[in-house]
Design a protein that fits this description.
The structure holds two protein chains of two kinds.
Chain A lengths: L4 E3 L2 E5 L4 E6 L4 E9 L5 E8 L4 E4 L2 E6 L4 E6 L8 E9 L6 E3 L3 E6 L1
Parallel strand pairs in A: 2-11
Antiparallel strand pairs in A: 1-3, 3-8, 4-5, 4-9, 6-7, 7-8, 9-10, 9-11
Chain B lengths: L3 E4 L2 E4 L5 E7 L6 E7 L5 E8 L5 E2 L8 E7 L2 E6 L8 E8 L14 E2 L3 E5 L1
Parallel strand pairs in B: 2-11
Antiparallel strand pairs in B: 1-3, 3-8, 4-5, 4-9, 5-6, 7-8, 9-10, 9-11
Classes of the chains: A mainly beta, B mainly beta.
Chain lengths: ~110, ~120
């Protein structure tokens, strides 16, 4: 079953603006991952943050994790039209081995 | 590195026929492969976990006789949709995992996803 909830469900911004997407989950996790999916394509792994980490950066991406609130956020800075895609968070729960549980996703549209 | 392919990328079939989808890890050995299903504008739903050389583990509500999974080698898993019906039309995505690529520790595990297969059953 899906345990992740993401908000907003859809986000439309202008190029150059920052985009923030949030993800909440319900159970204890080993790690949380963010993926990107272009329409009709497979998933591209963006970043993984472990349960003992609070913040991680990768290029224009910044991910935070608050295990007390069971939530994570993905920030994309200086967005580009090419960032238009669906973004999913996925958790690896402590009791699920390597199984990923995906959130519902945020559809990001970056207007040129 | 860590490339996963799927074949075919798109398939259209008649109701009642069976369709086989292949998932291959091209440059690493995948001890575990996962099969997901995704409906339009929806999230990915895990269907089953496939370990090389053993029977697949299916998620609750997924019919194992309907969705046959075979993981005969460390680089290939197949999903066969038997007696397909229009409601089986969906986007099917596989992923592959090898703990050796991530230091063998679950806390740093990463799955590598295939590009997906679009199945349309008429």
């Amino acid at each position: 079953s899906q345990q992740g909830e993401e908000d907003p469900q859809a986000l439309s911004i202008q190029e150059g603006e920052n985009a923030t997407m949030n993800c909440s989950y319900k159970t204890s996790i080993n790690n949380l991952q963010w993926y990107r999916q272009n329409s009709g394509r497979g998933l591209v792994h963006l970043i993984l943050i472990r349960s003992n980490e609070r913040e991680k950066h990768s290029g224009r991406l910044r991910v935070t994790l608050d295990t007390s609130k069971k939530s994570s956020s993905l920030l994309i800075t200086a967005s580009r039209a090419a960032d238009t895609a669906s973004y999913f968070c996925a958790t690896v729960q402590e009791t699920s081995g390597s199984r990923l549980t995906f959130g519902e996703g945020t559809q990001l549209t970056v207007n040129p | 590195g860590a490339v996963v392919s799927q074949h075919p990328s798109r398939v259209i079939c008649k109701s009642g026929t069976s369709v086989k989808i292949e998932c291959r890890s091209l440059d690493f050995q995948a001890t575990t492969m996962f099969w997901y299903r995704q409906f339009p504008k929806k999230s990915l739903m895990l269907m089953a976990t496939s370990n090389e050389g053993s029977k697949a583990t299916y998620e609750q509500g997924v019919e194992k006789d309907k969705f046959l999974i075979n993981h005969a080698s460390l680089t290939l898993s197949t999903l066969t949709v038997t007696s397909a019906h229009p409601e089986d039309s969906s986007f099917y995505i596989c992923s592959a995992r090898n703990p050796g690529l991530a230091g063998g520790k679950p806390s740093t595990d990463t799955q590598y996803f295939g590009p997906g297969t679009r199945l349309t059953v008429l």
